[in-house]
Specification:
Order of helices and strands: HHHEEEHEHEHEHE
Helix content: 40-55%
CATH class of the largest domain: Alpha Beta
Largest sheet: 5 strands, mixed
Number of strands: 7
Structural class: alpha/beta
CATH topology of the largest domain: Dna Topoisomerase Vi A Subunit, Chain: A, domain 2
Mean pLDDT: 87
CATH architecture of the largest domain: 3-Layer(aba) Sandwich
Strand content: 5-15%
Number of domains: 2
Strand order of the largest sheet: 4-3-5-6-7
Distance between the termini: 60 Å
Shape: elongated
Low-confidence stretches: none
Number of helices: 7
């Protein structure tokens, strides 16, 4: 017996339920909400999602998500280009930006080293980070990776790769609990961790 009276509704619920954090009940509620909306609203949502998927790109400088070749952060003349914050993914950029405690630039690795998940150094933008230190006038690199074993492993790997870097290398302070992802840390704690960063060698 079919769970729903409409196969079209069932297909929509199944599609929505594939999104992270969305169960079948929430998916059904969302699908019914979209069904009750006028057609224009649903079409606008679908159009926005399609345009995002088709047109969004990675910034050619920092590898954050962008609408153009260079993202709005890298293209902002008021940002401090001497300080580079290294993060795992674009969600961390959003989390740090919400704190309003950092005015430098970013470098998005695209993840962290995790052998169990099949992610090695060559799968990340680490080589590109090393190249940036040679081409740009960077005086400090802040390693703002997750407080996990994988994050620490990536920190140490990057530190070794930057052996010729003459600037300062620091890590965010441990106001963040071990195992926490930056996107789930409250803005005050994350902001203080950025401001109270410590030299990597003292970690």
């Amino acid at each position: 017996m079919a769970e729903y009276s409409s196969i079209l509704l069932e297909n929509a619920v199944d599609a929505l339920a594939k999104l992270p954090g969305i169960g079948k009940k929430t998916a059904l509620r969302l699908a019914l909400h979209l069904l009750s909306e006028d057609g224009m609203a649903t079409e606008q949502l679908a159009d926005a999602l399609l345009k995002m998927k088709r047109n969004i790109m990675l910034c050619e400088r920092c590898y954050n998500i962008s609408d153009s070749k260079v993202c709005s952060i890298c293209g902002n003349p008021h940002r401090d280009e001497n300080i580079l914050c290294v993060v795992a993914d674009m969600r961390d950029v959003l989390a740090i930006e919400r704190t309003a405690s950092f005015n430098g630039l970013y470098h998005v690795l695209g993840g962290v080293i995790s052998p169990i998940d099949g992610v090695g150094p060559n799968d990340l933008k680490i080589a590109e980070l090393v190249q940036r230190t040679k081409k740009e006038d960077i005086k400090e690199i802040i390693l703002a990776l997750p407080a996990t074993i994988e994050g620490d492993t990536t920190n140490f790997y990057i530190f070794r790769q930057l052996k010729d870097f003459e600037g300062k290398i620091s890590v965010i302070s441990k106001g963040i609990a071990v195992g926490d992802a930056l996107e789930f840390v409250d803005e005050i704690t994350l902001g203080r961790s950025i401001q109270n960063r410590i030299p990597f060698s003292q970690k």
